[in-house]
Write a structure and sequence with these properties.
This protein has 475 residues and is α/β, with parallel strands linked by helices. It has 2 domains: 264 residues, 3-Layer(aba) Sandwich (Aldehyde Dehydrogenase, Chain A, domain 1), CATH 3.40.605.10; 177 residues, Aldehyde Dehydrogenase, Chain A, domain 2 (3-Layer(aba) Sandwich). Helices cover 40% and strands 22% of the residues. It contains 15 helices and 24 strands. The protein binds NADPH dihydro-nicotinamide-adenine-dinucleotide phosphate.
Amino acid sequence: MRSMIVAGRKVEGRACFEVHSPYDGSLIEEVACASPTEVDKALEACERSRATLKKLTRYERAKVLRRVAEALIKRREELTKILASEVGKTLKEARAEVDRASSTFEFAAEEVRRLAGDEIPFDAASGGVSRRGYTIKVPIGTIVAITPFNFPLNLAAHKVAPAIAAGNPFILKPASQTPIADLILGEIILEAGFPEAAMSVLPGPGGEVGLRLVRDERPRMVTFTGSAAIGKEIATNCGFKKIAMELGSNSGVIVASSADVDFAIKRIALGAFALAGQVCISVQRVVVHRDVFDYVVDGVAKIARSLKVGNPLEEETQMGPMISEKDAQRIAQWVEEASASDASIVAGGRRNGTVFDPTVLTNVSASSRVWKDEAFAPVVCINPYDNFDEGIDAINQSRYGLQAGIFTNSLEEAFAAAERIEVGGVIINDVPTYRVDHMPYGGVKDSGIGREGLRYAIAEMTEEKLVCFNFWRSQ
Ligand code: NDP
């Protein structure tokens, strides 16, 4: 059985749960499950550790972060196999996640050295002539980090690396479907020299372990990545503490007639079917200028039909299963509903257990669930548009707003898209699925609150403390 980590110690606890492969249902490992006692111990230890963390200099924090980055690369193949097994992502996708998690820690190590406050120009106010002062960045306090199943390692890295950089203790609650890679990450962080009491990794049901952590008064911040529904539940339960919410989306793409259409086709297929569409910035809704509509649909459908789908542990597999049969059944139902109204299934549409074929739909009504909700599945909807404003309006008609993409060779259209699409990030000449780990990343509307990306997450996890000297005892 794999132990949990409570205040830096491996603990088996009294209960456990099984983690199964989403591809064939085989047992991967039993994992210890945190009880209220372990949650309390972890929280208490975090509070205790704050005095130790205060003494950990930026130099030392950067050293810990760099060691974690190096250890992730050393354990790359082991972590790759675990991610492919527990998430069902392909080996190529799993390797890329390990590499990105390592670079997330590297960026955090660099940011921590630049972490500094500002000089405050007190003499800019009439009452400030004799004053001099500055701000210092102080850690916010205990951070509760709750993560989803799709990128267990890198999305946990996006929370714990800035927590360490800022000098905060943390408790990580991984997704129950995918806790193993996060428990290994916990081991690595301990081996890298982060104080034991300052960190715990507590697997267990979100509605119990997660909710208990969220409701407790000791943490100063909850940083959550997951669905909008759970994000809203957390927000109503967390009381008087800071929240950061990285939530879902049904990301849109515009393909203008001036675009490099062949490039757009390749990128749309990649953005729609990577990780079986289970990426928060998967391409779900595409609007294409009518002049190039048929060409784009044919191109994306051709790629969809050509993908080798199946066992994620086989090197040649290009798309693995969905995370559960329930999710595969849900998307099969949504596709059926859409096709029962006006949509056409141009490619895919079939389910085999947890595997749902890469699917392309056209002429999808804006009221279909597969268009208006988050599909989180290998399904892309492609509709035509006649004028540019119509395209922008179609993308904006969503309760989500994480990222959007536009393929165009017109500067005017690119600028208009950048200014008018209501999202956290607009990607010109690429899909919304594009992300590097140091860029500001997050959404508007139901896609979230706050930004990740190391510099931005570290800012969220620190307080500005003001220091003001009154040199000449002026009043
Ligand atoms: P969920 O929202 O179902 O779960 C996310 C985490 O929340 C899990 O650890 C879960 O635990 C926990 N949780 C569940 N209920 C509660 C609760 N009541 N209180 C506290 N914690 C709780 O998301 P999924 O794991 O299914 O991930 C998919 C979602 O994540 C999609 O909507 C996707 O768009 C979004 N996402 C957003 C990203 C972004 O950066 N914006 C990136 C990646 C994914 P348990 O597993 O035990 O239920």
